[in-house]
Structure formats: C-alpha cells, structure tokens
C-alpha cells in the first residue's frame, strides 16, 4: 500500500490511484464507527467481509442494469472502481419504521411503512449529516432535479433487489443507505451507485425472531475435515481453495431470485400434494428499470410493436394435499406478506391448484 499514491482516507476505506486513468482502488479497513465516528472500534476481518459482500452485490446490480462504479474485486480487501464525482448526499430508503424515524414521528418500531420512503442527508460529519429536502439539494446545487429523479428510481430498484435477496435468507432489509456519483464518459455524464453496499449500509432484521442482526452474536463456525483417499487430512491450501469455491457457488445461487423469471421455494416430495403458484410484480406507478431494459432490447431486436414491459417473478410451492383450498390460500398469502413479496412496492397473485 505504501508504494501507491493515497488519494483519500475515510472512516471505512482508503482510496488509492488505480492502474489506469479514471480508475481507483478501494481498500476496505477493519474500522467500525458509530454516531459519525464518535464511537470507534477495530473488528478484525470486517474489511474483508464488507469487500466480498459489496463486490457480490455490485456485480449483480450491474447484471440487472443498475449502473455502479464497481469494476472488479482485486483481492480480499481491495476493489477496482471507476473514478466518479461523489454527490454529497446520503440516500436512505426505509421499508419499516425504526431508529430515528420512530423517534421523530412517534411510530412504533417495526411498523411496516405504507410505501418505501426515501430520505436525503447532507454528507457533513461536523454537522452530523443533517436531513435535507429536495429544495435544499437543488438550491445549493448539490444535485439537479434530473439527478434526484435518477437517484430515487435507482434507490427503489436496489431496495427491491436487496429485499428479495435478503428475504430468501429470512432477513428483512428495513433500512438501506446508498451513495451516488457522477460518471463522466466523454461528453456524457451518468448517475451511478458509488461507495459500497454492505452490512455497514443496511439494517437487517431476522424475520423469524424479529431481532436486529447487529445485536445477535455470530454462531461459531463448525470445524470441517477434508480427508484424502487414505483418510489423511488434505493439504491446507487445497482445503481453503475447495471451501472458497463452494462458498462462491452458494453466493451465486443466492442471486437466482434477481433473474427476470425465477422460482423460489419449489418444494418436491412424495405423496398427495397441492401446488400454489404466486406471481409477484411491481405495483403500477413504480419504475421498473428491468422492464424498461427488456423493452428496449426487444425493440433493438426488431420487435417494434413493443411499447413497454414489466418484469416479475413466478414462485411455485408444493403444499400438503390434505389442506383445503381456502386454508392453503390463506397460508400462501401470509407467506407473501412475510417473505415472498415486498408489499410496499410489489403486488402478488395466488393461484391454488391440484
């Protein structure tokens, strides 16, 4: 690190000049801060975890058409990213009342909000990052009206993706914090996701226990043995590589719900069964970034009659065949409310068949 030119050091990362013009290397630190760095601690391995999680999420956001500054993960602690001009705003998306929102408005913590609420905070540690309105943002030229519209549309799309991704692991994303930047490409400028998306920028709750994830200690990692042909332990390097590849496959599998048509919870089993089909899609009026990308691609392929497209997901669930249809439908609707759909921005339809 000492041989490279340091550009900036913040609370959680150090930025270095990248290998090519217009690129930067992000180094993730182990520093943990709270209340605008009034409380500090060192958590060994935190930077490694945040780097891997953020790289995974950014990769998949790029894949579904959400532009980010991320290029690739270089090693356990570093990412190669595009150089952007950071917009001095923290963008917070809330799905459930908690924290400062509950305090300010007197809403009981854990209350689902009528819809996802986006808030803007001016990035200024010495001012404790005050909340600001769109009028402040445009008046002080922190961002244009068009940039605010782009930021809000991208935030809702990211919130939808992360709600589904974490929901598949029985976690609820109640609050998400994002940063954006301007990416200059010749005479063009684009608004892209910047910084990181990691446990530092999301507040997760366990759906089953309703506990804040940051308040629950991590379970001890089970010890695993890998034996060779004669029962001897495999070399250390082989075991680490094998485990790393297995974890990468697992992370890849977790992203399956982000595909245009996905099947979550397809449960097999013998004996008499009943099939429930759930169709989930964005509510009318919610910008469907993925749908616009599909419509545009179809037009480029020569399908000029396509005016619009909406992308959703279909979920097939096998149920106990002894349930009566009314009970089955009620249970599946509860599944949708609690896990399968983000009811703030998505609607769902349930079909019960034999």
Describe the structure.
The chain is α+β, with helices and mostly antiparallel strands and 354 residues long. It is built from seven helices and 17 strands. The strands form four sheets. Strands 8, 9, 10, 11, 12, 13 and 14 form a seven-stranded antiparallel β-sheet that branches. The chain has a five-stranded antiparallel β-sheet with strand order 1-2-3-7-6, with helices on one face. A three-stranded antiparallel β-sheet has the order 16-15-17, covered by helices on one side. A hairpin with a 2-residue loop joins strand 12 and strand 13. It is globular. The protein starts with 5 loop residues before the first strand and ends with a strand. About 16% of the residues have low confidence.
Tally of helical segments = 7
* Radius of gyration over all CA atoms, rounded: 22 Å
Helix content: 25-40%
What are the secondary-structure elements, in order, as H or E?
EEEEEHEEEEHEEHHEEEHEHEHE
Write the layout of secondary structure elements.
Elements: E1 6-9, E2 13-17, E3 23-28, E4 31-34, E5 39-42, H1 46-63, E6 70-73, E7 78-82, E8 85-86, E9 89-96, H2 99-105, E10 112-122, E11 131-132, H3 134-139, H4 145-167, E12 171-185, E13 188-194, E14 202-206, H5 236-254, E15 273-282, H6 289-300, E16 312-320, H7 325-340, E17 346-353
Antiparallel strand pairs: 1-2, 2-3, 3-7, 4-5, 6-7, 8-12, 9-10, 9-12, 10-11, 12-13, 12-14, 15-16, 15-17
What's the gist of this structure?
With 354 residues, the protein is of the alpha+beta class. It is 29% helix and 31% strand. It contains seven helices and 17 strands.
